[in-house]
Amino acid sequence: MKIATFNINGIKARLPRLKEWLEETRPSVACLQEIKSQDDGFPAGEFEAIGYQAIWHGQKSFNGVAMLVDAKASFTGPVEVRRGLGIDGPNDGEGEQARYLEADVNGVRVVCIYLPNGNPHPGPKFDYKLAWMERLRERMAEIWAEEVPCAVVGDFNVIPHDDDVWSPKAMASDALMQPESRAAYSRLLADGWTDAMRTLNPRGGVWTYWDYQAGAWQRDHGFRIDHLLLSPELADRLEAVGVDKDHRGREKASDHAPVWVQLRN
């Protein structure tokens, strides 16, 4: 079973690239973030045409998450379990942002998240990021208590270690690298979840994001913020992880590259 996460940065703008990646790499489950589409505008038919069943949680112009499952490979699901964490956005009257989607696929619980960025720091957006992370931790503990194999994947907007970024100094003031952000991420791992990429690449140096500005892609000035966390049941099945880096260099690409984990059956 291959589970992937991909911050697509606008599903309509990147649809040709997204379908290209799906057909070339054929993940069992693809979790998408920043679809930037309302529910009624989600292009589900485009994915059905290439053998993927979809569920999604959209929002106008911002955020939004989705999950695609390879029906051609006879994977069952996605059977939605939950959408949203019940935590309002940082602005009064804003309501909940579309950042969380949870479903069962072939006996595995898959959670797709788009964690708040938190900039500017300090401020209400950073406070919201930390509150969201704490609520995520609570939900992950609830899933843990169910004793179901689980993968929590997505854009966490956290750079966990200095060797997860091309220049710690360049990102030192960013919300992605603040001690509070890192500590909240570390607490998830301390609860027993496994960072799949870190486990198989303990020396770091693996990037999943390159900004559009300042020639970051051409200079390989990237960092790792897209993560795959596994429950013990899935960590025991961990076979391989990777970044489909070449897709970041294609025309009209997202600023993120797809990241995936391969699990033994």
UniProtKB/TrEMBL annotation:
InterPro entries, alphabetically?
A: AP_endonuc_1, Endo/exonu/phosph_ase_sf, Endo/exonuclease/phosphatase, ExoIII-like
Could you say which EC number(s) this protein's record lists? 3.1.11.2
Show where the Endonuclease/exonuclease/phosphatase domain sits. 4-256
Q: Which cofactor does it need?
A: Mg(2+)
A Pfam family that the UniProt record links to this protein: Exo_endo_phos
**CDD domains (UniProt xref):** ExoIII-like_AP-endo
What is this protein identified as? Exodeoxyribonuclease III
Q: Which gene encodes it?
A: xth
